[in-house]
């Protein structure tokens, strides 16, 4: 089978729960490759209102990758019951003892409390979604993988990580942003140029993730740059220390 996903740890049983309203069907193979690093997917379910034409593209991949399609019909017009259905199943699985961990596939902050509750039981919690995912959900997972970013910009969150350790781990991205912004060989660039450069590498980066309030504070914290004010109000130059 060409799309068979090998598991690196078959002793760890995982439940992969996908919110079809808040996930990309085109990333299902990459999702399974990601979870295979942690264990074997023994429960694979996709939740949605399958009467919606917009969700029809999930049906063939679900068959190919052996996912169950779980119907979540709305009982009131305009209301989405997908998240409630997914949470109920997750809690049933949590208390059944049939799995060792979960991967919640969504970009919706509504799953933050679910991730926290699973984590409180000492179980593995993985997340998979787009870079628009709120930090509250991201930080509730042991690891959160961005479906619309490259491997170099996936975010790992553990209880042992601090803002300083996160900056140390991702300092190379800020260095790369500086090099990209100064591609003309100049030794200094404006802070706004750096802002545009870093957003290409980390589209939804937030300074507070690194214990800072601004991008300028991040570069100062790196220790190899100087932030110099200019004669123009609000404009700053970032220089690499010699």
TrEMBL record:
CDD domains reported for this sequence: PIN_LabA-like_N_1
Domain NYN: 13-146
InterPro entries: LOTUS-like, NYN
Protein name (record): NYN domain-containing protein
Lineage: Bacteria, Pseudomonadati, Bacteroidota, Bacteroidia, Bacteroidales
């Amino acid at each position: 089978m060409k799309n068979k996903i090998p598991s690196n740890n078959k002793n760890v049983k995982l439940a992969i729960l996908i919110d079809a309203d808040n996930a990309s069907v085109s990333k299902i193979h990459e999702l399974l490759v990601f979870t295979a690093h942690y264990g074997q997917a023994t429960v694979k379910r996709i939740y949605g209102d399958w009467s919606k034409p917009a969700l029809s593209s999930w049906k063939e991949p679900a068959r190919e990758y052996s996912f169950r399609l779980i119907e979540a019909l709305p009982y009131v017009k305009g209301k989405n019951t997908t998240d409630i259905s997914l949470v109920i199943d997750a809690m049933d699985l949590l208390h059944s003892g049939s799995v060792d961990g979960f991967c919640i596939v969504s970009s919706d902050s509504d799953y933050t409390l679910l991730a926290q509750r699973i984590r409180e039981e000492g179980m593995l919690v993985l997340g998979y979604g787009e870079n628009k995912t709120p930090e509250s959900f991201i930080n509730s997972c042991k690891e959160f993988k961005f479906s619309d970013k490259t491997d170099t910009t996936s975010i790992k969150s553990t209880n042992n990580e601090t803002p300083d350790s996160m900056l140390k781990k991702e300092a190379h991205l800020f260095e790369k942003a500086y090099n990209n912004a100064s591609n003309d060989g100049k030794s200094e660039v404006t802070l706004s140029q750096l802002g545009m450069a870093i957003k290409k590498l980390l589209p939804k980066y937030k300074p507070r993730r690194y214990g800072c309030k601004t991008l300028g504070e991040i570069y100062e914290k790196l220790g190899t740059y100087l932030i110099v004010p200019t004669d123009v109000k609000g404009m700053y130059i970032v220089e690499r220390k010699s």
